[in-house]
Design goal:
Blueprint (H helix, E strand, L loop, with lengths): L2 H16 L1 H7 L4 H9 L2 H15 L13 E12 L3 E12 L2 E4 H22 L2
Antiparallel strand pairs: 1-2, 2-3
């Protein structure tokens, strides 16, 4: 796989991760509650701004973090398994307001935050 595809995968993840917001709202969770939840968790705010900035090139309004996050670096390591199979490992960093965040750590935190919201809301409705 070309190295650039990994870059696209990282960007695509955060765009889709942020779109869980729309899914939650369409599943019946109050829109204001979802917005408040996002705005009370730094990880989801970064995800929102990164996703919107990636989709629209530049965000000019409703910047939750105060500054558009961006991919600030990537390390790629390629090794071989035996003589034939190359294995590439990547480590991406997201920069937001001069803070450097490991993209995988951010992604896991976002997934966990969405999981908590959805479980709490589903339990509350039963």
């Amino acid at each position: 796989m070309e190295k650039e595809f990994y870059d696209d995968d990282v960007i695509s993840f955060f765009i889709h991760c942020f779109h869980v917001k729309d899914w939650a709202i369409n599943a019946g969770i109050n829109k204001n509650k979802v917005e408040k939840y996002i705005n009370s968790h730094q990880a989801l705010m970064i995800c929102a701004d990164f996703a919107n900035g990636s989709k629209h090139c530049k965000i000019t309004k409703n910047v939750r973090t105060g500054e558009q996050p961006y991919v600030g670096g990537c390390e790629r390591f390629t090794s071989r398994l035996g003589d034939e199979i190359p294995i590439m490992q990547c480590s991406y960093r997201i920069v937001c307001k001069s803070e450097i965040i490991d993209a995988l750590v951010l992604a896991k935190e976002c997934v966990e935050l969405w999981r908590v919201l959805l479980i709490d809301e589903c339990v509350a409705d039963t």
